[in-house]
Amino acid sequence: MNSILWDDHGHKPNGNGKSNGNTSLIELRRVGKTYQTSAGRFDALKGVSLEIKQGEFVSIIGKSGSGKTTLINLITGIDDPTEGEIFIGDTPVHKLNEGQMAAWRGLNIGIVFQFFQLLPTLTVLENVMLPMGLCNLYTRAGRYERARHLLELVDLAEQADKLPNKLSGGQQQRAAIARALANDPPIIATDEPTGNLDSRSAEAVMKLFEDLVAQGKTILMVTHDGDLAKRAKRTIALADGVIVN
């Protein structure tokens, strides 16, 4: 695994594991995931092979239990594969131990959950600054400046000093996206990011995703919404733990 280094100002140099556009940024090789349940063995994913390039906007669709969330959890390192290999850039993430995984994920993947998961006792600004502190990036002043910039990006600058419970659902989701962008990861992974939003807020989130892809981010979006899935440049359909398209 290559190390990801930072300069004294908290900026990433070239060669941070991002794809050069000619090779896959994300590659799964015959990946399987099996759970042992009270009802017996459950194969959530079965020998999935997949390649995703830098700058792709990919939707992942399928019925409940098809393996969508399992796939995202394996790519982001939240869960480990039972078999197979997962590469992000040149990093074999399936070989990372828990500590290595946490450090790697903090720099390389931003995760946006359906239920926001903002820390309720921190202001919106502090929530966005938090990942930078956890990865020891930037000075205190640099974290503040970057968090302010990201909140402007998601049109929440005026909400910076409020606690999350003072924001609407759509605003909280945009704050969560700003937090996911804090360490400038090449990949944003989202699981039902608009599931709890009204149509207007959902549209704002989707437009933001499209803008981020235009800037070179790679976005993986699990969704049940067929219309939202069509907004992605590519759709991966899962059924019974296998890719069916």
Structural description of this entry:
The chain has 245 residues and is of the alpha/beta class. It has a domain at 54-72 and 99-243: P-loop containing nucleotide triphosphate hydrolases (Rossmann fold), CATH 3.40.50.300. 31% of the residues lie in helices and 26% in strands. It has seven helices and ten strands. It has helices at residues 68-75, 98-108, 124-134, 140-153, 169-180, 199-214, 226-229, and strands at residues 24-37, 40-53, 57-61, 83-88, 91-92, 109-112, 187-191, 218-222, 234-239, 242-243. A six-stranded mixed β-sheet has the order 6-7-8-3-9-10, with helices on both faces. Strands 2-1-4-5 form a four-stranded antiparallel β-sheet, covered by helices on one side. A hairpin with a 2-residue loop joins strand 1 (24-37) and strand 2. Helix 3 packs across helix 4 (140-153).
